Amino acid sequence: MIRSQNQIKIESNSSSMSDLVFLLLIFFMITSTLISPNAVKLLLPESSSKTMAKQNVTVYIDERHNFYVGEAMVEPAALQPLIEQGIEPGVDDACVVLRADKSVPVQDVVQVIDAVNAINAARGARHKVILATSPKK
User: Fold this and answer.
1) Do 57 and 69 contact (CB within 8 A), yes or no?
2) Among the listed residues 36, 44, 38, the one whose alpha carbon sits nearest the alpha carbon of residue 101
3) What are phi and psi of 48, to 5 degrees?
4) Going edge to edge, which strands form the sheet with 128-131?
5) Rounded distance between C-alpha atoms, residue 125 and residue 94, angstroms
6) 84 by DSSP, 3-state: which?
7) Strand, coil or helix: 128
8) How far apart, in whole angstroms, are the C-alpha atoms of residue 11 and residue 27?
9) Do 132 and 102 meet the contact criterion of CB atoms below 8 Å apart?
């Protein structure tokens, strides 16, 4: 039997493909860390204090006086039940982080504090409101 010396070998070099996948992986890991975790864009007031707390519920107030609990826009009258929903049952010392734009009037901040105080009175709890700030430049 006579065999042909010219055999076709089907091979593919996958080293360049793995390099490309590795570079894409690095690109997406770097760009994902640059994404801002805050859904509502705010200009926070500046402070030199560095108080850190475990946040249970986050309330946002933007420059147009819109209130958000988490990422859902709410009316000021609906703050209390939505904040109460965000606090886990059985937790008596939760932290409600208030991220208010620095142009927001104090009355809007007081509405959030009043809602948390009403929850404290109803539950006999000691929930706190912490005002989020940005570091001083």
Assistant:
1) yes
2) 44
3) -95, -5
4) 72-74, 67-69, 57-61, 95-100, 128-131
5) 9
6) helix
7) strand
8) 29
9) no
Spell out the residues 6+ positions from residue 112 whose beta carbon is closer than 8 angstroms to its own: 59, 61, 67, 79, 83, 96, 98, 129
**pLDDT (tens place) for every residue of the chain, 137 residues total:** 666 677 777 777 777 788 888 889 888 888 776 665 555 565 666 666 666 666 678 899 998 989 999 888 899 888 999 988 888 888 888 888 888 888 889 899 999 999 999 999 988 888 888 888 777 77
Q: What is the DSSP string of 45-79?
A: PEES-------SEEEEE-TT--EEETTEEE-GGGH
Q: How far apart are CA 51 and CA 44, in angstroms?
A: 15
State the pTM of this model: 0.62
Strands (E), the chain: 46-47, 57-61, 67-69, 72-74, 95-100, 128-131, 134-135
Per-domain boundaries in the chain: 46-135
Residue 128 one-letter amino acid:
K
